[in-house]
Amino acid sequence: MDRVKIMRRGVMLLLCLPLLALAAGPVAKLSQLEGTVEFSRDGESWEALSRNKYLFPGHEVRTGADGSAKVSSQATGEVRDLGASTHLRVTEDGVSVLAGSGLGETGDAAGSFWQGVENKFATSQRYTTVRRSVKKAEDLPRIDTARELVLSPSHPDVVWSNAGPEFNYVLRVGATRFPVAPASTAEMIRFSVPAMAPGEYEYEMIILLEGEEVYAPRRPGTLIWLDDAQDADVVQAVAVRQADPSQNDVFALAEVYEEAGLLVPVMDLYRDFFQAYPDENEMRPLLIKSYHDLKLMDLKEKEAITFNTIEMERQL
């Protein structure tokens, strides 16, 4: 089903059905997969896995005769070996063995990691509620941007909602004004800020119509430009996680950017993830939150509709 159909059906479902209970966060994580490892949401339809995977209640995993993986448990913080020819089911209490030799010896603990995951999902779930606003034709265009935005030489992009193809923009950073013409009718506009001296600046997005200013925010936000050493630290931290089979996944990589305050690369990671894996709906609240953090409210609303629609259809 294409995205437009999902959204239209989602609006109808949201009008006709009661609100969903908030979905729980992941209960376990698969990493370091080798050989044949398969995943199912219902125990009937199976798909092959070759990447790290966060597991939620109701999910099942099975390995072939050549299959193995590591299983990290949210309940205990333990990391255990998943051997060959084993079938697991995930429940709210943890992971249970349905068939096979079960789980091996306990490895390194991952309690602090799971605390971060639990906190992130608890926060992101609040943004999945759809709150549609009524826009009037006479309303002046406006753009909200993040109150604080961190950029760096490797990640210099600012993003904002497109007020419409008839508008132009000026991005003011400190005393410098950058004119930005709309690139298209896309919902999101992106602009790469030229290299700046490290430090903190006021910034604001101004909307122009036929050369005249029609909107400016009441107060500016704060833009922080990282220095080369700080930028290199982030690049190195991402590279370290990418080289670690247990940490090379969208959540763990996004955590590096979040700790540095780099909101745009967090959004890009989740957008790329859902482009590749659109069925990973349980993880979608993280993308919804990233849109919220960047004040991309139309995109946030559409993702919230998609999330609720898929969850409702799975329950019907």
Q: Estimate the global geometry from the Cα principal axes.
A: elongated
Low-confidence stretches: 10-21
Helix content: 25-40%
Instruction: Spell the H/E element sequence.
Output: HEEEEEEEEEEHEEEEEEEEHHHHH
Structural class: alpha+beta
State the total count of DSSP E strands.
Answer: 18
Task: Give a written overview of the molecule.
There is one protein chain. β2 and β3 form a beta hairpin. Among the domains are: 28-110, no CATH class; 148-225, Sandwich (Immunoglobulin-like). The strands form 4 sheets. Strands 11, 13, 14, 16, 17 and 18 form a 6-stranded mixed sheet that branches. With 316 residues, the protein is α+β, with helices and mostly antiparallel strands. The model is unreliable at 10-21 (pLDDT under 50). It is built from 7 helices and 18 strands. It is elongated, with a radius of gyration of 22 Å.
Record the SSE blueprint.
Blueprint: H1 3-16, E1 28-34, E2 37-40, E3 47-48, E4 53-55, E5 60-63, E6 68-73, E7 78-82, E8 87-91, E9 94-99, E10 103-109, H2 111-124, E11 148-151, E12 157-161, E13 167-173, E14 176-180, E15 188-192, E16 199-209, E17 212-215, E18 221-225, H3 228-243, H4 250-260, H5 263-276, H6 284-293, H7 297-315
Parallel strand pairs: 11-18
Antiparallel strand pairs: 1-4, 1-6, 2-3, 2-5, 5-8, 6-7, 7-10, 8-9, 12-15, 13-14, 13-16, 16-17, 16-18
Helix pairs in contact: 1-7, 2-6, 3-4, 4-5, 5-6, 6-7
